[in-house]
C-alpha cells in the first residue's frame, strides 16, 4: 500500500510536523508514504487513482474545480481520505465539493488556542474501542457538519462563552467516518499543534483512522460506482 501526504498552507498549524507524524504512522503500518509540499499533485487524476490513501494537511489554500474533482474521483473509486484539524476540514474554503466529501467545514474556535475541554467517546466502533474519554487543552473546533457522518467522539461546547452561547451548548463532533462512493473518509478535529496528535489517545485514534481509510482501497477492488453517477455532477 502507498499513501500521498500533501502538506502546506498556513504555517501556524505546523503542517510539516503533522506530515511527519502521519508519515511515521503509515510507515509503521507498512504503508509507503509519498510526502509532497505542493498542491500540483492534485492535477494528475491518474496518479491519484494509484494511491490507497490521501492525507491532506493544508489549511486554507486554493485549488481548482478540476483538482478537487480529481481527488473526489480517486476517493469515490476507493482511495481513502483521512486527516485532522484545519488541514482537512478547513483546507479549501471556496470549494463546496471538498466540504461535501470531507463531511464538514470549520467556522470557529471560540476561545482560541489553549481551551481545556473533554473529548467524549460516543461509539463502540473499532476505531475508538478501548479509548476512554480524555481531556485536551487546545482549540475546540466549531464545525458545520454533515448529519450523515458516523460520529465516533464529541465535545461539549459550553466551556467558552461567546456569541454562540445563547443558542445553548451542543455536542460537537470531533471524530467521524463517512463514505464517498467506494472510498473511506476519516476526520479528527484535534491537531492544532503537532504535539496534540503526537502521542496519547488523539494519536491512537488518528493512527487507526489513517490505516482504516487506506484499507478501503483493497475492499473496493472490483466494484463499480456507475449506479452512483447517474445524477451527474451538479456541485
User: Main beta sheet: strand number and arrangement?
Assistant: 9 strands, mixed
> What do we call the CATH topology of the domain at 2-104 and 175-228?
Rossmann fold
The helix content is: 25-40%
Unreliable stretches, pLDDT < 50, 5 or more residues? none
Classified by CATH, the class of the domain at 2-104 and 175-228 is Alpha Beta
Helical region count? Answer: 6
Strand-residue proportion: 25-35%
Mean pLDDT level: 96
Shape designation: globular
Placed side by side, the strands forming the largest sheet appear as: 2-1-3-4-11-10-9-6-7
Terminal residue distance: 31 Å
Radius of gyration: 17 Å
- Secondary-structure arrangement, i.e. CATH architecture of the domain at 2-104 and 175-228: 3-Layer(aba) Sandwich
Q: How do the helices and strands follow one another from N- to C-terminus?
A: EHEHEHEHHEEEEEEEH
Summary tags:
two-stranded antiparallel ribbon, 235 residues, Rossmann fold, 26% helix, alpha/beta
Could you provide a short overview of the structure?
The protein is of the alpha/beta class and 235 residues long.
Structure notes:
It contains six helices and eleven strands. Helix content is 26%, strand content 29%. It has a domain at 2-104 and 175-228: Rossmann fold (3-Layer(aba) Sandwich). The model has no long low-confidence stretch (mean pLDDT 96).
How are the SSEs placed, and which strands pair?
Elements: E1 2-9, H1 15-28, E2 32-36, H2 45-48, E3 53-59, H3 65-76, E4 80-84, H4 86-89, H5 96-102, E5 104-108, E6 115-121, E7 134-138, E8 142-145, E9 150-156, E10 171-180, E11 183-188, H6 200-220
Parallel strand pairs: 1-2, 1-3, 3-4, 4-11
Antiparallel strand pairs: 5-8, 6-7, 6-9, 9-10, 10-11
Amino acid at each position: 500500500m502507498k499513501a500521498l501526504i500533501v502538506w502546506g498552507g498556513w504555517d501556524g498549524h505546523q503542517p510539516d510536523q503533522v506530515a511527519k507524524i502521519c508519515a511515521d504512522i503509515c510507515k509503521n503500518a507498512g504503508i509507503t508514504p509519498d510526502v509532497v509540499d505542493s498542491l500540483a499533485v492534485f492535477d494528475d487524476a491518474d496518479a491519484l487513482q494509484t494511491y490507497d490513501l490521501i492525507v491532506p494537511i493544508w489549511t486554507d489554500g486554493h485549488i481548482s474545480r478540476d483538482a478537487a474533482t480529481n481527488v473526489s474521483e480517486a476517493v469515490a473509486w476507493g482511495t481513502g481520505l483521512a486527516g485532522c484539524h484545519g488541514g482537512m476540514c478547513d483546507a479549501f474554503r471556496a470549494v463546496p465539493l471538498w466540504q461535501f466529501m470531507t463531511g464538514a467545514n470549520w467556522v470557529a474556535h471560540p476561545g482560541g488556542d489553549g481551551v481545556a475541554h473533554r473529548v467524549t467517546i460516543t461509539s463502540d466502533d473499532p476505531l475508538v474501542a478501548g479509548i476512554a474519554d480524555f481531556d485536551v487543552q487546545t482549540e475546540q473546533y466549531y464545525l458545520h457538519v454533515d448529519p450523515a457522518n458516523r460520529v465516533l467522539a464529541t465535545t461539549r461546547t459550553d466551556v467558552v462563552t461567546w456569541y454562540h452561547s445563547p443558542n445553548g451548548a451542543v455536542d460537537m463532533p470531533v471524530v467521524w467516518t463517512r463514505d464517498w462512493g467506494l472510498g473511506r473518509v476519516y476526520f479528527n478535529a484535534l491537531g492544532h499543534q503537532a504535539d496534540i496528535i503526537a502521542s496519547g489517545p488523539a494519536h491512537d485514534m488518528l493512527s487507526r483512522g489513517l490505516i482504516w481509510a487506506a484499507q478501503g482501497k483493497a475492499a473496493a477492488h472490483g466494484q463499480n460506482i456507475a449506479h452512483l453517477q447517474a445524477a451527474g455532477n451538479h456541485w
